[in-house]
Amino acid sequence: MSAEIIDEEEATKARVKERQRATALSVRASTWPPVTPASHGQQQPPLRRNIAVGDLHGDLVNTKAVLKMAGLVDDRGRWTGGRDRLIQLGDVADRGPDTLALFRYLYQLRKEAAAAGGEVVLIMGNHELMTLMHKKHRLRLPFMRDPFSEHGEIGRWLKHLPIMQVIDGTVYAHGGVSPYWAKLGCERTNLQAQKSIKRYIHSGDLLAAKMQFPVFGDNGPAWYRRYAYDKDEAAVSELLDEALGALGARRMVVAHSPTRSPKMHVRCQGKFIDIDTKISRFFKWPDGTPDGNHLSALEIIGDRVTAIYPDGRELISCGAD
Ligand SMILES: [Mn+2]
Question: What residue stretches are annotated with the Calcineurin-like phosphoesterase domain (predicted)?
Fold first, then answer.
């Protein structure tokens, strides 16, 4: 009986320690450019909502719809999320016609959120990397190329996006963070990306640049697909636990790998969640089959993780176990 109580005490202490470590990591994780929340509460504020949204691919209408569904904006797309934090997991660019308008919208939303004490965090996706390198056909047109050039209206912002983040014990990346980058750590991985982004942009050859700068390569956080698509559950579990352990985090949330259904792909007892349900109406599978317009947002409050869909909410985990 008393041994059980002691065990429980130990477990509680371990949980508190783990949480402190995760908080320390999230505080250290930097977002660029830095923004200072306008309001500072005197009392301990309630837990803020972290809302993660996946690939938006040039669809402004569905972007506003998904943010409204998650309770972050009003009918006109203006921030009503208060202190909430939106984490957009990359691939804002391409497929649909609204790439430039979408980045302008998110830039404005970022300011509105900061003014309300909230936050908008954008993570670098592989399409942002390709856009910065001007690899997309459309970007050969000067009116599109200029805003996305290194010093352009959007480019000068995009080139500083973090390639991964750890926020409140959850790892966020566009593709996924393999144990290699997890062991290097969030701060140093982002630093490595920042150090090479300029040379990457000017390399002009995607395949060569992927080899030269592994942080932007197929096993880097923006392109990795193994957690999402490897069918070997045991192997994925082992890799994921290694990465989460190295980062002192409890779960990893990614996009980039379209899910087979309109629902999120949850693996490894909720420790891995792929939220790319194909939100954009312009999504097509590689064989050309259209399959988009599936809205979803992931809400994390403390350890309560809920998927939000147009037809309702689905609890993924409640942190009680
Ligand atoms: Mn992608």
Answer: 52-192
278 CA from centroid of ligand 1 (Å): 11
CA of 224 to the centre of ligand 1 (A): 9
Task: Determine the distance separating the centroid of ligand 1 and the alpha carbon of 257, expressed in angstroms.
Answer: 7
Of 34-38, 45-49, 115-119, 187-191, the one with minimum mean pLDDT is 34-38
The residues, any chain, with a CB within 8 Å of residue 275's CB and separated by 6 or more, are 52, 53, 54, 89, 253, 254, 255, 264, 296, 297, 298, 307
CA of 236 to the centre of ligand 1 (A): 20
What pLDDT does 270 receive? 96
Q: Can you give the pLDDT at residue 9?
A: 57
Q: How far is the CA of 82 from the centre of ligand 1 (A)?
A: 29
Q: How far apart are CA 262 and CA 243, in angstroms?
A: 27
With tokens 């087979």, the residue in question is 260
Cα dihedral 120, 126, 129, 134 sign: negative
Q: Is the pLDDT of residue 194 over 80?
A: yes
Q: Can you tell me the distance from the alpha carbon of 134 to that of 229, in angstroms, rounded to the nearest whole number?
A: 28
Q: Quick one: how far is CA 196 from the chain centroid?
A: 21
Domains defined for the chain, CATH in brackets: 46-317 (3.60.21.10)
- Name every residue whose Cβ is closer than 8 Å to that of residue 269 and which is 6 or more positions away in sequence: 317
Whether the bond between 179 and the residue before it is cis, its omega within 30 degrees of 0, is no
